[in-house]
Amino acid sequence: MLVTRWDRSLAAHLLSLVSNLERYIQGEDAAQLLPECVALRDLLQLWLLQNDTVPGETERYGALRHHLGIVSQLAMMEGRQLLPEHFSGGLMQQGPHLVYLWMPPSEEASNLSEQLSCYGFMVQTMYQASKLAQALQEATPAAVVAYTDFTAGDPIMALADTIRGLCPLLFCSSRYDFEARLLAVRAGAAGFLAWPLLAHELIDNLSFGDLGEKRDPLRVMIVEDMASLAGLYANVLNSHGVDALQVTDPARVLDGIVQFRPDLILMDMYMPECNGMELAQIIRQQRLLDGIPILFLSVEKRQSIQLDTLTLGIDGFLTKPVAPEELVVTVINRARRYRKLRSYMINDSLTGLLNHSHLYAQLEYEVLRAKRDQRALSLVMLDLDHFKTINDTYGHPAGDEVLVNLARFLKERLRRSDLISRYGGEEFAIVLPGTRQEDALRIMNAMRQAFSQIEQRSNQQTFHQTFSVGISSLATAEDTTQLVQQADDMLYQAKRLGRNRVEGYSPEHVPLSRRETEA
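Structure (tokenized):
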């Protein structure tokens, strides 16, 4: 009320409340709260002593709103226990990810281990409950994947509680009935997989939830004009493994969304210059940004106002000051849900990679950004060799399996900032921001060699698959169209020269048509 209109009696009452709070926390461990409380008290005393002048609306909106917001939010957080770290899976884990695999003694796991190693996983296979229990004491894995037929006395069920306290537990089983799935849920399973276990299905299950967020943390953009408040929210989210970007200038939000690619936007409803409702409408005008969930942070409690904002596509409200546990639970669950839904909206249904149209939209922006910042950028066009022969020899399901294996391989081996797309059919496109063409050549050559070692399976048969690559960069291309054309030319050059090779564009290159290459 004092922010919107000056009233000496209200100010005196607030000063009394602040003084009481200050005395209350004198003997407490409140290193952050006490100085902010003193600053608010001093501000109110200063204004009340000025009998002949009234603090202006701008001053109240700036200084009073700032200090009151910080004090109330800090007071809400003081002495509260945050949620346990396992709620969000902890901070990002580096290096190969250790997975414990529990299998029937009759099964051989070497092939699965080799496949998973190509995706950046290190697998330890165990056949005895005592070995698994001992291994859990020695090192905590990224996940435990356990075979079970859900019979009475299955030792993995006795270990389930212990495992879930350490890491995600995924069950695989030859049973698919409702009772088996219900037993898996009651045992706290994070996933349920068919047996025999396929590497790409396991990768898919590990891509979301706790482990997925260790490898690629949830991203939340905090739009709050008061940097100190934004910092408080960011610290709470960071402590639960969320990557939080703070934006205090609404004009920078659109660029920030494209660069940061948030899973959720946490936005103050009332900001100077551009309020949250206006900014939300600007975001919703952008076709590729329309689905990002937006949560308002506000002191607004009037139902009529909240209902009006829901018509703008706002996904919910958090009332200031917000309890840390409410902030964490609400933000993480909504962000997780959006991340999974977004993968269905903008990604190719078979491979999970960006689809053609979304790649072009992202590529246009990355080219503009690279030119503006004078940074390198390379484009990779990749095509599976003799893919029609795979379909003709082993069947279309085997061909789909190769496409999925390549997609997962690319996602595991490349950076989060790289854009990977299924360009069409058996052709893929990769955008490598900040990467010179010579570095892209080295990276793709190493990946080409590694992928050729992966054993592809079709029923009882095994085979190996290769790919060809063409690369261009902004060092030789003026715009997006030219960049794509040069990479495409080099892809067909690689195929003309025998396939299973990488070719980079040079100004001396003479383009070849697809018809000439195929001939």
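The longest strand covers residues 377-384. Residues 121 and 299 are 46 Å apart (CA to CA).
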